[in-house]
Specification:
- The protein is an alpha/beta fold.
- It has two domains: about 110 residues, Rossmann fold; about 190 residues, NAD(P)-binding Rossmann-like Domain (Rossmann fold).
- It has twelve helices and twelve strands.
- Helix 1 links the parallel strand 4 and strand 5.
- The longest helix has 22 residues.
- The radius of gyration is 19 Å and the shape is globular.
Length: about 350
C-alpha cells in the first residue's frame, strides 16, 4: 500500500517517515493541514501490528487534530507523530533524541507534544534536540488535566441537551479507559455526583477507581452493553463500529478517545439509533488548548476558561445538528471546515503571541 492509496489519506500536506538504525527509531509524522498555523499534535508510541496500521493511525489522528484546532478556535494546524514500538520496552533517551532530531529536520511545520506512550519527561528529552516541542516540564507540562476538564464540560452540555438534566448528580456514566485522562474525568464526574461504571485492561486502575469513586467494575468487553445514561470512551479509537454500536444501552456518547468512529457513517448510525454523539475532537480539545498556549506569556486562568468554553461549543453543535436534522459528527466537520476555509478569521488568541511564535 502507498500513502496516496490509503483510505485514510485525506489531502495531507506532508507524510514523513523517519528511522535511526543506532536507536531502532521508526516513526511517521503526518501533517494534515497548516492553513491556520504550524501543525501541532502529540507523539504517540505504540506497538503497532504493522507498518500499515501505524500509517493509518498517523493519518487519522493528524486529520482529527486539524479539525480539533479549527473548532476550538486555535491558530494552529493539525499533525501527529507515531513511534513504532513498545513504550515500556523499546523507549530510550537515545531514541527520543533521534526523534527530536527528526522533528527538527522538518523546520517547524510540525510541533510535537505528549500523547499515548509518551510523557512530560520524554518531551524534556526531545526538547534537547529541537525547539519544536510543547508540554515540557518547564512549560505547560502534562495536558491531561485540561483534556479531562474539557470532556467533563462536554458531558455536562450533552446531558443537558439530550437528557434535560442541568446537573450530573445521579447520572450513570460508563467510562472506558482509566489512563491519566479517564481517571481524572472520573474524579470530576464523581465530585458532581455521577454514578460510575468503569473498565480498563489495567485491573489495578479499576480497583483504585472502585475504591476512590465508588465505581462499579466492568469487564472490558462488557462495557458496551452496560446500561447507563452516558458512554465515555477514553481509551483508543475506532470503538464505535458495526459490532459495538448495536450493544450500546445509553442515550449519550461523549468521551476523550480520539477517532472514536471507526468510519464516518457511524455518526449517522448513532443518530439513527437515537444516541446523541459528541464529536471526539470537540470534547477532548482541552489538551490541545493547553499546549497551544505554552511558552512565555501563558495565562493559565485563560487556558482554563477557554477549556471550560467547550461546554458552549458542544451546546451550539448539538443545537445546530438538531435544527438541521443532521448527525452531530457531520455538523462539527462543517463548522471546522468553514473556519479552515476562512483561514482562521475570528480565531481565539488567549496568550497574546503571534502564530509564528508557536514555532519559535
Amino acid at each position: 500500500m502507498t500513502v496516496f492509496s490509503s483510505r485514510d489519506f485525506k489531502d495531507h500536506e506532508l507524510v514523513a517517515f523517519g528511522s535511526d538504525a543506532a536507536t531502532g527509531l521508526k516513526c511517521i509524522v503526518a501533517v494534515h493541514g497548516t492553513q491556520l498555523g504550524p501543525a501541532l499534535g502529540g507523539c504517540r508510541m505504540w506497538d503497532y501490528g504493522s507498518d500499515d496500521e501505524a500509517l493509518a493511525d498517523a493519518l487519522r489522528l493528524s486529520r482529527g487534530m486539524t479539525y480539533k484546532a479549527a473548532i476550538a478556535g486555535l491558530n494552529v494546524g493539525g499533525g501527529k507523530a507515531v513511534i513504532m514500538g513498545d513504550a515500556g520496552r523499546d523507549k530510550s533517551e537515545d531514541l527520543l533524541r533521534a526523534f527530536g532530531r527528526f522533528v527538527d529536520s522538518l523546520g517547524g511545520r510540525y510541533i510535537t507534544a505528549e500523547d499515548v506512550g509518551t510523557t512530560v519527561a520524554d518531551m524534556d528529552v526531545i526538547a534537547t534536540q529541537t525547539p519544536f516541542v510543547r508540554g515540557t516540564s518547564e512549560g505547560s507540562g502534562n495536558p491531561s488535566p485540561m483534556t479531562a476538564l474539557g470532556v467533563y464540560m462536554a458531558i455536562r452540555a450533552a446531558v443537558e441537551h439530550g437528557l434535560g438534566y442541568a446537573e450530573l448528580s445521579g447520572v450513570r456514566v460508563a467510562v472506558q479507559g482509566l489512563g491519566s485522562v479517564g481517571y481524572a474525568l472520573c474524579r470530576h464526574l464523581a465530585d458532581a455526583g455521577a454514578r460510575l461504571s468503569v473498565t480498563d485492561i489495567d485491573e489495578g486502575a479499576v480497583r483504585r477507581a472502585a475504591a476512590e469513586f465508588g465505581a462499579h467494575p466492568v469487564a472490558p468487553d462488557d462495557i458496551y452493553g452496560t446500561e447507563a445514561d452516558v458512554f465515555a470512551p477514553c481509551a483508543l479509537g475506532a470503538v464505535l463500529n458495526d459490532a459495538t454500536i448495536p450493544l450500546l444501552r445509553v442515550r449519550v456518547v461523549t468521551g476523550a478517545a480520539n477517532n472514536q468512529l471507526a468510519e464516518g457513517r457511524h455518526g449517522a448510525e448513532l443518530k439513527r439509533r437515537g444516541i446523541l454523539y459528541t464529536p471526539d475532537y470537540v470534547a477532548n480539545a482541552g489538551g490541545l488548548i493547553d499546549v497551544a498556549h505554552d511558552g512565555p506569556g501563558r495565562d493559565a486562568d485563560a487556558v482554563r476558561r477557554m477549556t471550560e468554553g467547550i461546554y458552549g461549543t458542544v451546546k451550539r453543535i448539538l443545537a445546530r445538528a438538531e435544527a438541521e436534522d443532521a448527525a452531530t459528527s457531520a455538523v462539527a466537520d462543517r463548522i471546522a471546515e468553514e473556519r479552515i476555509a476562512g483561514n482562521g478569521v475570528a480565531g481565539n488568541r488567549i496568550s497574546g503571541r503571534a502564530d509564528a511564535e508557536l514555532a519559535a
